[in-house]
Design goal:
The structure holds two protein chains of two kinds.
Chain A lengths: L1 E7 L2 H6 L3 E6 L5 H20 L12 E4 L2 E2 L15 E5 L6
Parallel strand pairs in A: 1-5
Antiparallel strand pairs in A: 1-2, 3-4, 3-5
Chain B lengths: L5 E6 L4 E6 L2 H7 L2 H11 L15 E4 L14 E6 L6 E6 L3 H7 L4 E5 L6 E6 L2 E6 L8 H11 L6 E4 L2 H4 L7 E3 L2 E3 L4 H7 L2 E7 L9 H17 L3 H8 L3 H8 L22 H4 L3 E5 L9 E5 L9 E3 L3 H6 L9 H14 L3 H16 L18 H13 L4 H4 L3 H8 L24 H9 L12 H4 L18 H18 L4 H8 L5 H13 L5 H21 L11 H5 L14 H15 L9 H6 L3 H6 L5 H5 L1
Parallel strand pairs in B: 1-6, 7-12
Antiparallel strand pairs in B: 1-2, 3-4, 3-6, 4-5, 7-8, 9-10, 9-12, 10-11, 13-14, 14-15
The chains are: A alpha+beta, B alpha+beta.
Chain lengths: 96, 633
């Protein structure tokens, strides 16, 4: 098992309870498996925020970062988790 | 058509006002807002090389074709002048309620020229123009000046647009304030101050005539529908405001650390983000005809800044009075934001200037004595707060700091230039370009200097749902020149010339690729011009080429299109962007590609062929470009 952290923002904090939540996962768990695990643990509240009911996939407007890098530019949902990794989940909002 | 068809020329020297027709070809070629103001500025034939404070400089204000209509987020105004920070033509804009009232006076634009002998404010009520003695409000802060103007005119419904002490004292980054919103950047307020112009006050009863009312309302409905369907606009963006970008940028290593050092702002700066700021929110604010209402009125509830309130701060101010100066207390930022608005200071430049002075102090380049006795270490919020007043009144070291970092470095000498964060004299906003390369190229190439808004890459900053024109890795160099041109031209046309809100476009229209189509539809139905998406895109390109040509005539060259040396040399040491840098070699490649794709030569001079393609042979002549024979010989 390896120690990882979920980092969430805005409305996701209401679901995870804190900005930062430590979790233990099997080494080389993929993001896809990790999301499945989270959905199991946090139930419908998370599903509603994460999963597009039409496609069944993660909402397009959701940002998933591994150590600050969007998983799209890593190996997507096949990106694997290692000891000490952060996974940030949020909807990017704001402006400037 | 939805243009009013008139431009008002106001001569502050002679106290004369004259009305001129809006040229239809200017409306067709430049749409309105920034594009129209740029063309009017060009037509004024202002002598290159003049001091921005010379009375030959002019201030031009324009609205868009959507102003005064029912299109949401349309209450915006463009301000174009020669900037005292950059010595080049510049642009600033503001929302609120003032722009809508401006259009109701019956003018698409106003040109302020000359210099009043004594302080004055100009009151335009429909077509009646009065020059009012401002000696009784000269010296007042922007909030009080607005209050007493309303009292003097015995009319609480007028909309003033005023400068504060910073503008009067020619602080090079003085803002102009309408209600509590700012045309903040690049020193438009200082140019007004140099003309002894305390403000403009507007009131009107005119309404633009829509060419095809039914068609226009259909287009407006489509805009509203896209806004409603946006996954980020309601309630999220309206609820958290621009502050949400603090969390976003910190998570990706894009928020600069103190004075853009090699360690970006990390999670220690989360206390200045939206999550904490929302706890301080008293109420929300919206500009005229904006259903988003992203403005956040905040009150400090505890700590040493308890009791201060402000309409804001927006993201850029959370950066400039936060991570840029090493402060993690949102209370200070709220207080400093409030005071800056009252003094009429641009919060971005002011924060970057203070952070710069802090670094020079920590590096031993400026001594405590030279800083009026302040122990100006990063994080010293008390000193930063006092310095805002010193800058606005040009007292003590504030006189030096009122010049902006470029001129400060020239005066201080030693190694100070290395730490002076600016491009073309303009201090950068809250994005570290080393971790968002297109933003970096925008800082390098936008005519206004290091700013974000004239070529904002939402694809790099708000990644997830931005697939238009394509998805990008913010750290990558791939196709960034092409992307930057897209954002500069499309952004230039859609928001700066149509004068609609960038947040509406960025959240609702651009992600679903409806920005060009709906802008064209609105423009066509409002005016009767037979325009397409391509025409809209070309407006942006034309506007950016014209502004660039004006810079070239001022003597700007390729060497002015680079980032500060620090950002090209210092590699990011920590965080997600570890190892990232915008090194000179890659910047050169990017610039070569950018110029080439723009149809400019290797020195950044547009070719006659490109300008002809844009219908701007007059600009080719203005630049003295050789004709085609030259190339074929």
């Amino acid at each position: 098992m390896v120690a990882v952290k979920i980092k969430s923002m805005f409305d996701f904090i209401d679901i995870f309870g804190h900005h930062e939540v430590p979790l233990q996962v099997k080494k080389n768990t993929s993001i896809k498996e990790f999301i499945g695990m989270l959905l199991k643990k946090y139930g419908d509240k998370l599903k509603e925020k994460m999963i597009d009911p039409i496609t069944g996939d993660v909402f397009e407007h959701l940002e998933i970062l591994q150590n600050g890098r969007n998983i799209k530019f890593l190996q997507g949902h096949n990106t694997t988790l290692n000891e000490g990794d952060d996974v940030t989940i949020f909807v990017p909002i704001g402006g400037g | 058509m939805s243009y009013m068809g008139k431009i008002l020329r106001i001569n502050l020297t002679t106290k004369e006002a004259t009305v001129e027709p809006l040229k239809e070809e200017d409306a067709k070629n430049f749409m309105g807002g920034a594009g129209l103001a740029m063309k009017l500025y060009y037509d004024e034939k202002i002598k290159p090389g003049i001091d921005p404070y010379d009375e030959q400089n002019k201030v031009i204000l324009t609205t868009g074709f959507t102003g005064g209509t029912s299109c949401p987020t349309n209450s915006r105004i463009a301000c174009v002048t020669k900037s005292p920070l950059t010595n080049g033509v510049t642009f600033s804009n503001v929302g609120g309620f003032f722009p809508d009232e401006f259009k109701k006076t019956g003018f698409d634009g106003m040109i302020f020229e000359g210099k009043s002998e004594k302080p004055v404010y100009v009151y335009v009520k429909d077509d009646k123009v009065s020059f009012k003695d401002a000696s009784g409000i000269w010296g007042l802060n922007t909030f009080d000046a607005q209050h007493y103007i309303k009292e003097e005119l015995k009319d609480q419904s007028v909309r003033p647009f005023v400068i504060g002490p910073a503008g009067e004292n020619l602080v090079r980054y003085a803002a102009v304030i309408a209600e509590k919103r700012a045309a903040g950047r690049k020193g438009v307020g200082a140019v007004m101050g140099s003309k002894n112009l305390k403000g403009l006050v507007v009131k009107g009863t005119q309404k633009p005539k829509i060419h095809d009312e039914k068609g226009f309302q259909e287009a407006v409905k489509k805009v509203l529908k896209a806004m409603q369907e946006s996954p980020t606009l309601y309630p999220k963006f309206g609820n958290f405001g621009t502050a949400g970008n603090v969390e976003n940028c910190i998570s990706k290593g894009q928020m600069p650390g103190p004075n853009f050092c090699d360690v970006p702002a990390g999670e220690e700066y989360l206390p200045i983000g939206a999550q904490e700021n929302i706890k301080l929110r008293a109420r929300r604010y919206g500009c005229y005809l904006c259903p988003i209402r992203c403005g956040q009125v905040r009150v400090v509830k505890s700590g040493k800044w308890k009791g201060w309130s402000s309409e804001g701060p927006e993201f850029e101010t959370l950066f400039s009075y936060g991570s840029q100066v090493g402060v993690k207390d949102p209370g200070f930022i709220i207080a400093a934001d409030r005071v800056s608005d009252e003094l009429g200071l641009d919060t971005v430049s002011a924060g970057v200037v203070i952070g710069y002075a802090m670094e020079l102090y920590e590096k031993g380049i400026l001594s405590k004595e030279e800083l009026d006795g302040y122990d100006l270490k990063f994080g010293n919020d008390d000193a930063a707060f006092e310095l805002l007043y010193k800058i606005a009144y040009r007292e003590g070291v504030g006189d030096l700091m009122a010049e902006g970092v470029k001129k400060m470095a020239e005066k201080i000498g030693k190694d100070s230039g290395y730490y002076a964060m600016h491009v073309k004299g303009l201090e950068p906003p809250g994005y570290d370009p080393r971790t968002c390369k297109s933003m970096g190229l925008t800082y390098m190439t936008v005519y206004t200097g290091a700013e974000h808004s004239r070529g904002y890459p939402p694809q790099e900053i708000f990644g997830a749902h931005h697939k238009v024109p394509w998805e990008v890795d913010p750290y990558s160099w791939d196709r960034k020149a092409e992307l930057t041109i897209y954002n500069q031209d499309i952004g230039g046309a859609c928001k700066d010339c149509a004068m609609l809100c960038t947040f509406m476009y960025r959240n609702a229209l651009i992600p679903v690729n409806k920005h060009l189509k709906l802008t064209a539809e609105l423009w066509k139905t409002a005016t009767g011009f037979d325009v397409t998406e391509e025409d809209v895109a070309q407006v942006g390109e034309r506007y950016n080429n014209l502004a660039h040509a004006l810079l070239l005539k001022e003597g700007f060259t390729r060497k002015d299109d680079y980032l500060p040396e620090r950002l090209m040399k210092e590699v990011i040491k920590e965080g997600p962007g570890k190892g990232q840098v915008m090194d000179k070699e890659n910047c050169d490649k990017l610039l070569d590609e950018f110029y080439k794709l723009r149809g400019w030569d290797k020195e950044g001079v547009p070719t006659r062929e490109k300008l002809d393609e844009l219908g701007m042979d007059y600009v080719a002549n203005f630049l003295g470009l050789p004709d085609y024979d030259f190339y074929t010989q």
